[in-house]
Specification:
single chain, about 200 residues, alpha/beta, 4-stranded parallel sheet, two-stranded antiparallel ribbon, 7 helices, 6 strands, about 45% helix, binds zinc ion
């Protein structure tokens, strides 16, 4: 059935289960042509106006033909500290909180438990290259692993700590994690500014 096919596509959206996917499918097909056309054109326009930054790999809106986002190219931002996040939306939420003024790297996703091919889920090599670049500038002294406080986040942090350990001794690089303790702070994406400020101040 075609509506099932449509629902399957919606099921791929983050956080959407089968029931919600079917609701979306029924909603979309019951809309008039104008709505569907504006939806499709909004998706196309949004896709064409963004690209991934070649340094932090976040999606950003392109104004001319720049390769680097406004955060990475901002000379007022602290280059001694790099925050590693799983997803674009995590970065966006930390930026909104104004709790952090350093550099970022967007991994692309957390690492599922027992996954044999981590590079399929995260930009590992790109991350190592970025860390090396910042180290070569001679200023970087801390990396914050800002991951969700759940088993997947923990798994990702352990994997990254292991990967980054090669830099730890040679460059005296500090590798820290966000502090815990607030019940609302389990997912970065949904953490409010107070929680993020607390988590940053209490990193360990
Ligand atoms: Zn960037």
């Amino acid at each position: 059935m075609n509506i099932e096919k449509l629902a399957e596509l919606f099921k791929k959206f983050p956080g959407i289960g089968p029931r919600q996917a079917r609701r979306f499918a029924y909603f979309v097909i019951s809309k008039n042509n104008d709505y569907i056309e504006s939806l499709m054109s909004a998706i196309n326009v949004a896709r064409k106006s963004v690209k991934r930054c070649d340094q932090c790999f976040r999606l950003f809106e392109i104004k001319k033909s720049e390769k680097t986002c406004d955060i990475c190219s901002d000379s007022k931002r602290d280059r001694s500290i790099l925050m590693i996040v799983a997803k674009d939306i995590d970065l966006e939420n930390v930026e909104k909180s104004r709790a952090f003024n350093g550099q970022y790297f967007v991994l692309g996703g957390p690492l599922p438990i027992l996954e044999k091919e981590p590079e399929k889920f995260m930009r590992i090599n790109e991350m190592l290259t970025r860390v090396e670049q910042l180290l070569n500038e001679g200023i970087l002294n801390e990396i914050i692993l800002a991951l969700n406080a759940n088993t997947e986040g923990e798994n990702t942090a352990l994997y990254l700590e292991n990967k980054l350990s090669i830099f730890k001794d040679i460059h005296k690089l500090k590798i820290s994690r966000l502090g815990r303790g607030l019940s609302t702070g389990t997912e970065l994406e949904y953490s409010d500014s107070d929680t993020l400020n607390y988590a940053l101040r209490n990193r360990f």
